[in-house]
Design goal:
2 strands; alpha+beta; 93 residues
């Protein structure tokens, strides 16, 4: 028997459960289990919240934007003076 507990939107735990049938191979059981998980939407929800970031205050967002603007201006100034060496954007493997 394979099962996977997961939370719904309301915080209720539901189980995706698959019981082995008579003379059923493990591969077949695993395939049915994976299909049930796909149909239940567990993976979709997990991928949605994987990189969740809580909302930040407007002041913090403005401070970050101002800091980025200052850094950009400094970089452009150094580039004009020839003191900033501009290399390739991405390294080759």
């Amino acid at each position: 028997m394979l099962y996977l507990p997961h939370l719904t939107e309301k915080g209720v735990v539901h189980l995706v459960e698959v019981k082995r049938k008579d003379n059923e191979s493990f591969e077949s059981l695993l395939r049915r289990f994976n299909r049930k998980i796909q149909q239940s939407g567990v993976l979709v929800r997990a991928r949605k919240i994987r990189f969740f970031e809580p909302t930040r205050s407007r002041n913090l967002l403005r401070e970050d934007a101002a800091r980025r603007a200052v850094n950009r201006e400094k970089r452009e100034e150094l580039k004009k003076m020839g003191k900033l060496v501009v290399g390739p954007k991405f390294k080759r493997r």
